[in-house]
Amino acid sequence: MKTGFIGLGRMGRAIATRIKTAGHDLIVYNRTHDKTKELAAVGAAVATSIKEACGDSGIVVTMLSDDAALEQVAFGPGGICESSRKGTIHMVMGTHGTAAIRSAQERHAQAGQILVSAPVLGRPDVAAAGQLGVVLAGPREAAEKCRPLIDAVARRVFEAGDKPEHAAIVKLANGLVLGCAIEAMGEAFSLVRKYGVKTDVLYDVMTEGLFAAPAYKGYGKIIVDEGYTNVGFTAELGLKDIRLILGAAGAEHVPLPATHTVYNHLLSAIAHGYGGKDWSVIAHEQAQEAGLK
Amino acid sequence: MKTGFIGLGRMGRAIATRIKTAGHDLIVYNRTHDKTKELAAVGAAVATSIKEACGDSGIVVTMLSDDAALEQVAFGPGGICESSRKGTIHMVMGTHGTAAIRSAQERHAQAGQILVSAPVLGRPDVAAAGQLGVVLAGPREAAEKCRPLIDAVARRVFEAGDKPEHAAIVKLANGLVLGCAIEAMGEAFSLVRKYGVKTDVLYDVMTEGLFAAPAYKGYGKIIVDEGYTNVGFTAELGLKDIRLILGAAGAEHVPLPATHTVYNHLLSAIAHGYGGKDWSVIAHEQAQEAGLK
Amino acid sequence: MKTGFIGLGRMGRAIATRIKTAGHDLIVYNRTHDKTKELAAVGAAVATSIKEACGDSGIVVTMLSDDAALEQVAFGPGGICESSRKGTIHMVMGTHGTAAIRSAQERHAQAGQILVSAPVLGRPDVAAAGQLGVVLAGPREAAEKCRPLIDAVARRVFEAGDKPEHAAIVKLANGLVLGCAIEAMGEAFSLVRKYGVKTDVLYDVMTEGLFAAPAYKGYGKIIVDEGYTNVGFTAELGLKDIRLILGAAGAEHVPLPATHTVYNHLLSAIAHGYGGKDWSVIAHEQAQEAGLK
Amino acid sequence: MKTGFIGLGRMGRAIATRIKTAGHDLIVYNRTHDKTKELAAVGAAVATSIKEACGDSGIVVTMLSDDAALEQVAFGPGGICESSRKGTIHMVMGTHGTAAIRSAQERHAQAGQILVSAPVLGRPDVAAAGQLGVVLAGPREAAEKCRPLIDAVARRVFEAGDKPEHAAIVKLANGLVLGCAIEAMGEAFSLVRKYGVKTDVLYDVMTEGLFAAPAYKGYGKIIVDEGYTNVGFTAELGLKDIRLILGAAGAEHVPLPATHTVYNHLLSAIAHGYGGKDWSVIAHEQAQEAGLK
User: Fold this and answer.
1) Rounded to a whole number, what is the largest CA-CA distance in chain B?
2) What is the distance between the alpha carbons of residues D260 and D179, in angstroms, rounded to a whole number?
3) Does A264 touch chain D (CB under 8 A)?
4) I need a labelling partner for D178 at 20 to 30 A (CA). Which of A4, A55, C177, D6 fits?
5) In terms of domains, do A57 and A155 share one?
6) How far apart are alpha carbons A161 and A143 in whole angstroms?
7) Is D134 in contact with D154 (CB distance < 8 Å)?
8) Pairwise CA distance, residues B172 & B97, whole Å
9) Strand partners of residue D62
């Protein structure tokens, strides 16, 4: 089955390359044509419009940066919805809000199309190694059809349910837990610093004990080193995700008080000009509030 | 060198047993005499008073439940301070507040005695296996003298600094991070539940990914199972620790907004009668606030 | 100058009636025709479409319930923007978000029209008595042209600046202060109740002292009486306003931690089925969390 | 009946002077002798020890700065408890924690003495004018005996209950509401400033409307003027009170999330060196966190 792929940022390129090299018949599109070269080099067809990418594809994959891009690419003029046949599956691999996913699902359904949500866990280098986690949700049959594509990039697939929003909310919830872990480290490191303890002592205690996990090892290291210019994920992007989380929670009346502290520190960080730093810079805000230099 | 050991709760017994069986000359004391039997059985001397346990010991270890117990045992009538010689080292292995540790250090110093703080990371069964983490702080020479005892129970020693409060604050900060991790899980699990997703999907995503660590595996499991009667650490004890953390932070003017959310949920849990449940019952409070049953 | 008036809810009717009876040439429109009767009775012309209400009016006033209604009425098909001449002033009297106001201003400007924002302070009965506070902002000349209409309903006009969003943000900020006052009362009343003190003692202390003001007298009374069915403003509407506040704050990176506590309690209240109660029902949530019945 | 009065700070002097000039037989004591002169000048007897002030007094009044001072003056060597006869009434007029009041009550009871709590509402100049609010609680008969003294300084007496802690908690709860009002203003003023609105617009809206009360007029003015050196009550003292509030709430398991935001901002303010500024300087912290200069 032919597959269209739209959105060739760093993550999109890594995923599309895996899919193509796994032997799938792939046609790619990106607004900025330049980014298609890498895919052309591995033999993917390159479309010059969304319409062309969708034309006779049974599955169209998107990896887009935010809800606005999804709205435009899927439902704008010349977008996926109007360019695809009935029965086409749109597999959304970006991180999106539950409202955006629900709305997309409904409009695709009206056009006789099917939405599957398959947000990914991991960075582009993990994708390139085919080691992503993928959360998968949508109507069972459609989700099954997407599996071969997902298997090209995934170490593990987490089946979240039969509504696309099920995958979206799991991905957001995982981000919530991460934001709170970083906030907690910001608080904890500030606390020990005020008592004159070197932060690497706490780092060792955490990461060799209860918190021997990538979230703490990776972000903890950045905080200990105050290496916020070592950007994995910017504060601006962190804010975008936390907004999706708070939005999804608010819509279902779930209070998230700890997540709000993450949100507030992200706002402060950006207000202070650190929007382009790694989002663990919220630990720096915490330190400032405690009077540390 | 003879060692006194005071405080034979579950953790104290496990540690004292390891120390004795490692070959140290040990005399133990507990307010409730009954709990000394286990130690007598492995050959420890049993004192009938704190005074007797301190008499000619070079090091007196305490493993006590709270600051009030430390105050009474160390500085009450017939306590460690008045029962010990000059030069005696008091190694505190319990979790205590920084103010209590500082105050104890000062009063011991006035009596020519030395305080070393060596709080432990791990449960009694971990202690029994000699696999504890121990955070160690105090004057270097005194701390070194304590090492053979610590080595009998520790997998790893984290040297935190030359003031006893350095170890205390690291232990508290680690607890802060744990409290926030549980709070974050409470928020995240409530969120996915409101969207109709099974909690074990999120559990798998977390514990096979960024959060593949004991804190999330252990407490996450309790929350997923709503198994709050499976008590590792009660809400009442959790509240005691969070109070020590907030107290230590407040004394040095460190705001801890996420930790306050943990505190508030613990208060609610206890107000609702769950003081004796596992402290991850704060996730239940979070679920209640979101309108979940 | 002829004036169009769209949106005849309780507040809209009260304001429009004052404007008409002050002698202005008024044509009114409401989606539900029934609500125009009261205005017809005092001599207002009644339009059967937005287009008719705008036709040759120099000023078109709207009093709408939310941003979605504003979007539709002003910029939907047959809406104010396409139905009005160049130079028409659209005076928005509802409470709207700053983003909605800014967006409306820009689109009106593209059509050669002018937006003035004039949100009101007070309930419908206060409007009927001509005793509203009105916050006014927009280009000076246009704002001046609106003054005679405003004078028909206002006790006092607060000039907030030359951009319409200036008035919107002041109205929202005032609501923020109110929400926090109610939250504070919820916390304070729960606290004294737990100590066995009657809530009216605290009520008297507050309202005869530092807090001798309508916000405390009115909402404090509801809380003391637990009279949340005595609805001035529902929890659902309160949530709508708090969302506008948090949205406006987030857009400019202003952290509002106390306001988040109001938000969280509103979410809980609605999750527990109290969306239709007075929004001071957040005090009930606070009491619940403290274990009070 | 002879009355002893201990604690002649600014507030203590104002109250004692009113009591003496109302015709009561008064003997005063202050640790720093100098501050007794003002009272000697109006005819009060001056004691050189607590013992002398208590000797044959039926009521001993204290106006002390904190719980530690109360502990020392009432229960230290040569303190009120051991210096007074059975049946003596100790009327505490300072602001104290509920735990301190309860503990004092119990120890006085063991000595056959009675504690009455009568914290005051208002500043020293209000006391000098006899216009204080006084919250009164304690055993009815003893409280009645204190009334003539209170009537010398009070505009209004609020009877809170028959346990002394009833008055203490009402006074603390009133402070909670005030702290939250200041926090709310900090948030609201930051918000309008970020949108380019002058803060006095919001000040006028608040203080001529829902918030036409001393708390908003007084503290709002300081915030608008950024006049934090105009100190009514320092951030350090504010922190002391908020700690009493949080302590009293925590003891009864009442979560106070909004009050925690006040606490956190006070900690930050003091960490930044503003402990001696007016406690409304928390609005300055809020502005900083929003990136305002």
Assistant:
1) 65
2) 10
3) yes
4) D6
5) yes
6) 10
7) yes
8) 8
9) D6, D92
Q: Which two tokens stand for residue B36?
A: 């000394």
Distances, alpha carbon A167 to alpha carbons A157, A176, B161, in Å: 11, 14, 46
Is pTM beyond 0.95? Reply is yes
| One domain for residues C183 and C127 | no
Non-local (6+) Cβ contacts of A274 within 8 A are A228, A235, A281, A284
Asked which of D162, D183, D209 is the last residue of a domain, the reply is D162
User: Are D263 and D157 within one domain?
Assistant: no
Confidence of residue A23 (pLDDT cuts 50, 70, 90): very high
Element (H, E) at D45: strand D45-46
CB proximity A271 to D under 8 Å: yes
Write out residues 222-251 of D within 8 Å (CB-CB) of C: 245, 248-249
Residue D199 sits in a domain whose CATH number is 1.10.1040.10
Closest by alpha carbon to A93, among A64, A72, A67, A115?
A64
Residues 6+ apart with CB under 8 A from C16: C5, C8, C26, C28, C39, C44, C61, C63
Co-location of D118 and D178 in the same domain: no
For residues A216 and A76, membership in a common domain is answered with: no
pLDDT in tens, C128-155: 999 999 999 999 999 999 999 999 999 9
Residues B195 and B252 in one domain: yes
Question: Do B47 and B111 sit in the same domain of this protein?
Answer: yes
Picking from A159, A258, A289, the nearest residue to B261 by CB comes out as A258
Distance of residue A279 Cα from the nearest chain C Cα, in angstroms:
15
Q: Do C257 and A261 touch (CB under 8 A)?
A: yes
Gap between the Cα atoms of C161 and C255, Å rounded:
23
Under a CB-based contact definition with an 8 Å cutoff, are residues D14 and D127 in contact?
yes
Beta strands at D132-137 and D120-121: parallel, antiparallel or unpaired: antiparallel
Find chain C residues with C-beta within 8 A of A257's C-beta: 260-261, 264
Residue from D171, D194, D277, D293 carrying the catalytic annotation: D171
Query: Which of these three, A99, A127, A162, is where a domain ends?
Result: A162
What ipTM describes this predicted complex?
0.97
Q: Which of D117, D126, D185, D192 to mutate: most C Cβ within 10 Å? A: D192
Range of the domain at D47: 3-162
Location of structure tokens 């230290």? D76
User: By the 8 A CB rule, do D169 and C191 touch?
Assistant: yes
Report the C-alpha gap between B39 and B55 in whole angstroms. 19
Mean pLDDT along residues C33-50: 96
Chains that touch C (3 or more CB pairs under 8 A): A, B, D
**Does the annotation count C194 as an active-site position?**
no
pLDDT in tens, chain B (293 residues): 799 999 999 999 999 999 999 999 999 999 999 999 999 999 999 999 999 999 889 999 999 999 999 999 999 999 999 999 999 999 999 999 999 999 999 999 999 999 999 999 999 999 999 999 999 999 999 999 999 999 999 999 999 999 999 999 999 999 999 999 999 999 999 999 999 999 999 999 999 999 999 999 999 999 999 999 989 899 999 999 999 999 999 999 999 999 999 999 999 999 999 999 999 999 999 999 999 98
Chain B residue with Cα closest to A161: B197
Phi, psi of A90, deg, nearest 5? -105, 110
Of residues A171, A198, A221, A293, which has the active-site annotation? A171
Q: Do A257 and C264 count as a contact with CB atoms less than 8 A apart? A: yes
Q: Are C81 and C70 in contact (CB under 8 A)?
A: no
Domain total of chain D: 2
Q: Which residue of B has its CA nearest to D242?
A: B250
D266-275: pLDDT as tens digits: 999 999 999 9
The domain that holds B36 is classified in CATH as 3.40.50.720
Burial C195-204 (b: 16+ CB within 10 A, else e): bebbbebbbb
A289 and chain D in contact, CB less than 8 A: yes
